Amino acid sequence: MIGFRQVLAVPGMTPLLGVSLLARAAITADAMALTMYVVIALDMSYAAAGALVAALTAGVALGGPLLGRMIDRRGLRTVLSATVVPQLVFWLTLPVLPYVILLGASFAAGLLMVPVQAVTRQAIAAMTTAGQRQAAFALESVVGELSYIVGPAVVILCAATMSPGVVAWGVGAAIVAGGVGIALLDPPMRTGDEAADRPRPRRGEWLGARLVAVLTMGFGVAMLLSGVDLAIVATLREAGQVSWAALVVAVFGVTSVVGGLVYGALPRPMPTWLLLGLLGLVTIPAGLAHDWPWLCVAVVAAGLLTAPTLSTVSDAVSRLTPAGVRGEATGLQSSAASAGFALGSPVVGVAIDASAPAGGFAAAGLTGLLAALAGYLLSRRSPAAAPSPSSSSRAAEPRDTVAPTP
């Protein structure tokens, strides 16, 4: 654990991860809060709730690169000011907005969502050395997994004693508090060597095949994870044990945290395509489980590989992009993940409807395998990336983790 201690000893790292956990837990719970508000407070259908969540997700996917580009050009605090205020307005006015207006407002709120995840990753790349980044991004993935465990669960528990409107206000308050906290911390977005004023590179100079490979794998792992959640629910519903779904998802999340901690302590990184391929392979047999005890066992292997795979995607994005466009690149990464989460459930749902719940795990696993194969082929065909001016000080770093072994 020496690597983790060194990372947490970096000035500003511990409070950054703490504030990130608060804000990301709220952001992962916003879909649940909106769903409960529409279904319970507005007494509308789940389809109406799904449309509202889809509008929010579409906004997040489109806004990620735009906000990242603004960070590169205008700085962190400018972007946080431009996102925290709209979030405050949206969540405060939520209970008085008619549903039709709420659809448009949800899209706008997604478009201007506080970019906590992208900012955290960009700050980690600027605050750590090459030797610390494997452990640092592993910790960042662990924070992400904890947010998925804690956020929706807290919303569900609070909904048992509070009105959906109050719960939604609480989620919005946590998002706003996270944005304000990051603004107060004001973590660096570039290292000292990268801070010099340099011309912004053209998109064609950095958005090459290797970065496309990383984004494709980020999209694939998000699709896989979204599909696994749905397959778990479908399997337990068929067994008449749907009330145990929360426990199975919790086991999946906890094992992912363990996997992230173990991976961060390893002496060498592993290729993203290899980790994602393994994740896809171990996901498929989970369909053989037909009740909650065996399903808890079946998801352990996939859980152990989840956080390591996510951390290598973030690490690779930071290595493959010059400092002047790293905000836009991390925004593209967030957009790819949002698109993957949005598409994973429908694709796996079709597989479940056409076959059985086991088909859902198979579809999710095959999605991961296809994304890993695409990432491997793109990485192998692309020429070695030329060092950019802003990354010349990193010439001694190991090659990025998506490059295939020859």
From TrEMBL:
Residues 382-395 have a biased composition (Low complexity). Coiled coil: none annotated. Keywords: Membrane, Transmembrane, Transmembrane helix. Signal peptide: none annotated. The chain crosses the membrane at residues 21-40, 46-68, 99-116, 137-162, 168-186, 207-236, 242-263, 270-286, 358-378. It holds the Pfam family MFS_1. This is MFS transporter. Residues 382-406 are annotated as: Disordered. The keyword Membrane applies. The keyword Transmembrane applies. The lineage of its organism: Bacteria, Bacillati, Actinomycetota, Actinomycetes, Streptosporangiales. InterPro entries: MFS (IPR011701), MFS_trans_sf (IPR036259).
